[in-house]
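<discrete_fold_record>
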Amino acid sequence: MQFLDDSLHPENMDKVVITVAPYGPEWMPEDFPEDIPVTMQEQIDKAVECYEAGATVVHLHVREPDGKGSKRLSMFNELIAGVRKAVPDMIIQVGGSISFAPEDEGQAAKWLSDDTRHALADLDPKPDQVTVAINTIQMNIMELIYPEYYKGTSLDKPAVIEAYSEMIVPAGPAWVEEHLRRLQKAGIQPHFQLVGMHALESLDRLVRRGVYTGPLNLTCIGIGGGHHGPHPYNLFDFIQRAPDGCTITAESLFKNVLPWNTMALAMGLHARCGIEDTLIDQHGKRMTSVQQVRQTVRIAQELGREIANGKEAKKIYRIGTWYKAADETLAANGMTPNRKPGEKNVPLRAA
């Protein structure tokens, strides 16, 4: 992305789109009973509370009545319908893993099968977005979740720690292409969860080949364990390499969430928070999803940034926008055009 001399001035920045992830499939209700919703109505109400606090995107997972993460798409349909009725302007973003929580202690923490995740394109009512990973990679969320963070929680068991340490994100090239084809056919926008520069480069190639023909909404994930670590230069390098016409949301975990979000907000980008990312504040005290949203709003306002409402967020993300082919997609996302036969040097963007 290009930064001009006045790019850090808030009047030249988009309004902030705040994504909240309030369902936290890695936790059980007893880990934070004050803030982990269990019943369907509680889960709907949590989205409403976060929207009223300033979040305009809800990253959606679902719980069964016993508190475990649901892997039933019928439950997703029910929650999507409930959230859409309660807050029709909120962007509903379904987590592409569906639920990575182990079924029982000692079982693997894993993303569901290719076919099951493809079925997210058939959700009814359909969400605005589904998160999409690029490239199969390790997702060891325990690498940067220090013992003092999970002491006394449902994660504080050797078998569970092992399960989450060995988790893999399956996102090979054939699955990605088929998944993008199905989502685009259904009119569901992918929100790309990118774990490193290799994922950004692979996405660039998919656009250049015409496999994906829509807006580029990207999340730079700094959670370690096979993904970017929370080193500031990882975020800065990602921003420098990302296309001019994309949006970028920062995502990290535990005490890294606040500094990553603050850096992103200062640079005109967007933020994600919620108990899926951290249960605690910078002092180690429990912090609800709504409190995290309100904190993000305060920091953005201190920086002079305005908070996008639901309609504005949909415009910033270009929800419902699609392009005809690779050339139009490249131009719309501020990317260098493809090389024409015989063309020398770097192809220039048309005036």
User: Anything to note?
Assistant: The chain has one domain: 14-99+116-333. The CA atoms of residues 24 and 276 lie 4 Å apart. The radius of gyration is 19 Å. The chain has a mean pLDDT of 94.
